[in-house]
Amino acid sequence: xxxxxxxxxxxxxxxxxxxxxxxxxxxxxxxxxxxxxxxxxxxxxxxxxxxxxxxxxxxxxxxxxxxxxxxxxxxxxxxxxxxxxxxxxxxxxxxxxxxxxxxxxxxxxxxxxxxxxxxxxxxxxxxxxxxxxxxxxxxxxxxxxxxxxxxxxxxxxxxxxxxxxxxxxxxxxxxxxxxxxxxxxxxxxxxxxxxxxxxxxxxxxxxxxxxxxxxxxxxxxxxxxxxxxxxxxxxxxxxxxxxxxxxxxxxxxxxxxxxxxxxxxxxxxxxxxxxxxxxxxxxxxxxxxxxxxxxxxxxxxxxxxxxxxxxxxxxxxxxxxxxxxxxxxxxxxxxxxxxxxxxxxxxxxxxxxxxxxxxxxxxxxxxxxxxxxxxxxxxxxxxxxxxxxxxxxxxxxxxxxxxxxxxxxxxxxxxxxxxxxxxxxxxxxxxxxxxxxxxxxxxxxxxxxxxxxxxxxxxxxxxxxxxxxxxxxxxxxxxxxxxxxxxxxxxxxxxxxxxxxxxxxxxxxxxxxxxxxxxxxxxxxxxxxxxxxxxxxxxxxxxxxxxxxxxxxxxxxxxxxxxxxxxxxxxxxxxxxxxxxxxxxxxxxxxxxxxxxxxxxxxxxxxxxxxxxxxxxxxxxxxxxxxxxxxxxxxxxxxxxxxxxxxxxxxxxxxxxxxxxxxxxxxxxxxxxxxxxxxxxxxxxxxxxxxxxxxxxxxxxxxxxxxxxxxxxxxxxxxxxxxxxxxxxxxxxxxxxxxxxxxxxxxxxxxxxxxxxxxxxxxxxxxxxxxxxxxxxxxxxx
Length: 782
Ligand code: ADP
Ligand code: ASP
Ligand code: MG
Fold this sequence. Notes:
Carbamate kinase, 782 residues, aspartate kinase activity, Rossmann fold, oxidoreductase, binds magnesium ion, binds adenosine-5'-diphosphate, NAD(P)-bd_dom_sf, 27 helices, amino-acid biosynthesis, methionine biosynthesis
């Protein structure tokens, strides 16, 4: 069985809880023989760099303060994670190591790389021992015994042999990232962020099938998601673009990460150790993904011009300063971008051949396809001008454009650049599930509506799904001939296949439109969200699921920056959702929602005048297609109960179906049994209805079937769906048969309520309501 290499970055190991979470990932994702590569915990390498600097500056107090800080951090991790015996041993090992560091510092014999190596040595040891404590066969390995360099070059053959010899047992190896040794057994590093590179190197040496880079974001985004909330997570990016991003210093991957994968089929993915269910970003070979757009930012850099550069010199310099250096040529002159704190070291090496052109620069690079880059560069220059950001240096290459300034590119400016440069020309893949009455009309309307949306956004219907068959075409289905395509190309439907095909879609955005009435389909929502799909539901099941499940769904959507619209699940196309949202946005507090939210029950109650029996009216409605196949589904009131719950949740109430009292519009006994049995007992329904009808008349009222939700002063909620006797003059009494009505009272609409009324069912209006959701989704994504 092919092995897998998993790499956990410092951000995944920043606390004892994170080690525990990583251990859980290892337990569920790794098998004996796999390798785990770890970085130093949290910001340990940065602290070790500071320790080195204080050593160089002979800052004795600073040195011991920083050492104490490191000791406390490590000791804290050890104490939180281990039982008494291993704890004692690990603390004593740590103590010995810190004493050796102190001694070397006193004797002036510290070595930079050997000092920095401690971060990874500690984290590999802690994770290895912690996994052992959990009963997992794990062993920690010092990568200096695996990776040897000679004059800066890795000795691949020798390293491969070392790995074969030393990683041959059926245990999980926890290998230190970042570090290696030279032929004289001195410690060397692979450069800052180098653990990604360690992971792919190791994967190459052990012939692994895949590398997973586990980090603190869900994958590779269009820009740093910590700075821009609307950053888009890409499902796939090609190796060349990932490599370019890395060369430009983006931290998500180290610059050399991809080189060991060249000419191999080793898969590479970036995924989140904080959100294990989220789909990763796959870094795929050329041709397997469209070119994407990115903005990557720079902080505190110096730009230097170099007269002459020898071959390999930049990589030596980058090795020296432990940081990637971006190199480019413009107008025949060679430039380097150097982290400001390392400029003096670089200038020392390049003495007499290099000058600082600009210092203390911030900035960004736009990465895009070569066809787009010139236009994006011009647009970026305009935007910066509008934002009063003065560009100090600008360079355009084949697939990126670089802007350097001495002003901070804060999140606001970055968000504007991102919206205008990256968010343009994005594609939205639409999956339509459910081609019943409403679904078919929706698809028909799509021809016209998608063309309209395409003026703003590239919208493509990529899948049509029925319960038994589906048509999936990643490049888009021709909407005018879909029936033909369906005949020729549709396949058997399965949930697994749908999820898999959605996972393979290479689109910036995806939406699944659920026009099914299937509870089983709504059960797929968490998986669809894991595939980064926005959701549009006409289906009511998810919106009325158990609170815990529903809340988790909402949280999952929030975490992934995804939207869920369900306009038509209540009142079809009527804008009840807008009305409720708008009142709340404007600071109002909704106290009552009353009404009739079922077209069928509205028609039945409003049409009944005693001239015929209620059951014959029900059968008439059934014949006209106004009811569910079994009309008792409507008479049970459950559909209205679900709708009332959706409205309740929309106004921020945490209710469940069970919190809404339900009184069916039929005697309880008739709810059981077959439809035929019901028919033989239909008189019982007539007697029941007649009694209610007469009681209402006696009180000079009208019988209606209503939902009502009252939020009392105390905050308590009274919610009921059932028979109500309403005033003859009320809006509910005078409802056009078949219409829905929503009567909303709020602090501002207290005496004279806000009333929304109109057809609350019907395929055209419902399909149009779903188009409204799609339209608003596009507006939100734009
Ligand atoms: P690790 O500790 O796992 O190696 P790093 O901190 O080195 O992680 O890199 C991950 C960080 O990269 C993220 O937390 C994020 O802030 C930053 N980042 C910058 N640009 C991007 C991007 N385009 N996509 C994802 N993350 C990015
Ligand atoms: N710990 C090292 C660093 O901080 C290596 C890595 O994180 O990949 O640069
Ligand atoms: Mg990193």
